[in-house]
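Format notes (please read before filing issues)

Several people have asked whether sequences and structure tokens are stored in separate files. They are not. Every record keeps both together, in the order shown below: the sequence lines, then the token lines. Line labels are part of the format and must not be stripped during preprocessing.
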Amino acid sequence: MAMFERFEPAARQAFVDARDEARRARQDKVRSEHVLVGLLREPGPAADALAAAGLELAELRARLPRGSADTGGELDAEALSLLGIDLDAVRRATDAAFGPGAIDRVGASGQQRLPIADDAKQSLVGAVRQAQQFGQHTISSGHMLIGILDQKRNGALTVLTQAGADLGALRADVLQRISG
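Then the structure lines:
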């Protein structure tokens, strides 16, 4: 995870969350729309700006394209909730006890890491570029959201547009949050 050494812990966790979202949506790659949902799951400037824009986790998650990829042994939050188990609470407790992403490192035997799609890679490159422009040494979730918003086209922009988000206002809000 050397690629993420300059990323703040919440930003790194948002990417771990994105991988979980890709698996939940049965996708074969982590895409920008999964990163977007991961950003909303973790406290920080991106989640604050997305929430201020009226966007909610369940709504964005419902807009993710569903695939048929066999992602192998993922934990099914919906099925667990039927049993009274809150997967997000289990993840938080596991992360607190064993470190971020511990539950995913165990995984099912033979579980493969999902590759990162080009649009998600471009988002990460944009996040680094944005932090450099501000002269900041660490990359926050806000920088990651700007990396998504600054692309001409990607799945996350489609999800945001379908959810009725004002992309210009969202970008201005997150820029204000990270520039202080």
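For reference, the curators noted about this record: Residues 75-111 form one domain. The mean pLDDT is 86.
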